[in-house]
Fold this sequence. Notes:
Helix content is 36%, strand content 14%. A 4-stranded antiparallel β-sheet has the order 1-2-4-3. The mean pLDDT is 90. The protein has helices spanning 3-20, 31-37, 55-60, 65-72, 79-84, 115-119, and strands spanning 40-45, 48-54, 125-128, 131-133.
Amino acid sequence: MDVSIQAQILNLLQDLQDELELTYLFIAHDLRVVRHISDRIAVMYLGLIVELAAGLEIYDEPLHPYTQALLSAVPWTDPRLARKHQRIILEGEVSSAVNPPSGCRFHPRCPIAEDRCQNESPQLREVQPGHWVACHLA
């Protein structure tokens, strides 16, 4: 869908949300749209939530290495801001969701993984009020 139609649909969704006091489960890969429409964001990797927080907090202080890598890939329209942000390039292939790796599902691609990550699946835990993360090292 082109940008103007997308903007009209998003504005309609927000108007309906305000008018009818609705809650949406909005699933998307476009992180700019997610930021625009979401009050709370859950980041998923291979079917599991790896981070959950208020929308702006996810963008301002991502704690999970996957969230950090995702956000580093968002294009910046302001070249000055783009220079301040370093792109995180993940190595390796995405693991199978049908046959995920043991331990942390992200460990085969994680730039900070330790031995523990290969064997122990991290639990989603609250590390700051309202900010949850599933990472042994966060």
